[in-house]
Amino acid sequence: SGERYFQRKKPVTFEGLVDFLALDQENPSSIYSCLRWARENAHSVRWQITSEMWETLNTTWLEMKAVRKADLAGAGAAKFFDWVKDRSHLYRGVTYGTIMRGEAYNFSRLGTFLERADNTARILDVKYHVLLPSVKDVGGALDYYQWTALLRSVSSFETSRALYRDQIYPIKVAQLLILERRMPRSLSACFEQLTQAMERLQGQHDRAARRLAGEIYVRLTNADIEEIFQDGLHEYLTECIADMSELGVRIQRAYLGSA
Asked: In sequence order, which residues have a C-beta less than 8 Å from that of residue 28 and are 6 or more positions away?
């Protein structure tokens, strides 16, 4: 998305970024585009999902089409993003509560946890470098409010307080978001669920995908956060993101018949 934005040679402004990431119909990663494709994909497999799933997604799409650029001005942006999160939570809850535990359900789990792990890794990597003032601050206490915002962006603030109950430290944030299996959005927790979903799927040519998913999960299970910091958090997360991208390609090839 970054390259696509700068190709337009527009200055980086809050309003421009919000419009690009939320409403831009030519940006395939915008919220508008994601919801459009989700609705079209759901329509193509209408007979495999429940009526509650379809109605929730279709209503979300209709409401999305009614959003205008002026609606995202000022405090409107926060209201819009809260709406997106609420609709996402609603659809996920409706799916989990109504769909039969079969192939469609397991594919849904695969997509959910692979995307969630990728997002967690990217958010932690980007925000860690933005919020860390200098190399000498690695391992030290940092600004409480900025790191609280990072944790809230992945729904982890309350979990962090429950587990650590003290000042926020980068190494503890990383421990929480990478290795803490009790945290639903951690990489470790996501891959625990992802590997379980893959075990329930029966594919004829999915050995490569299963092997890579298992390797990533084992590495996360046996990793040590201090060693990760010593070798470089950015390097570790970059490798994780690359492996998850490759896993997505292998899943596509194994189950959908194309690279």
From this structure: none
Secondary structure letter of residue 155 according to DSSP: T
Count, in order, helices (H) and strands (E) of the chain. 13, 0
Q: Which residue shows structure tokens 């669920």?
A: 193
Q: If 0-12 CB within 10 Å is exposed, 13-18 middle and 19+ buried, where does residue 182 land?
A: exposed
pLDDT at 201 over 90: no
Indicate the burial class of 82 (C-beta count within 10 angstroms; 0-12, 13-18, 19 or more). exposed
Query: What is the spatial distance between Cα 10 and Cα 14, in angstroms, rounded to a whole number?
Result: 12
Segments of the chain assigned E as strands: none
Residue 217 makes CB contacts below 8 A (sequence gap 6+) with 188, 191, 192, 194, 195
Tokens of 172: 């503890």
Tell if the pTM clears 0.70, that is, is over it.
Answer: yes
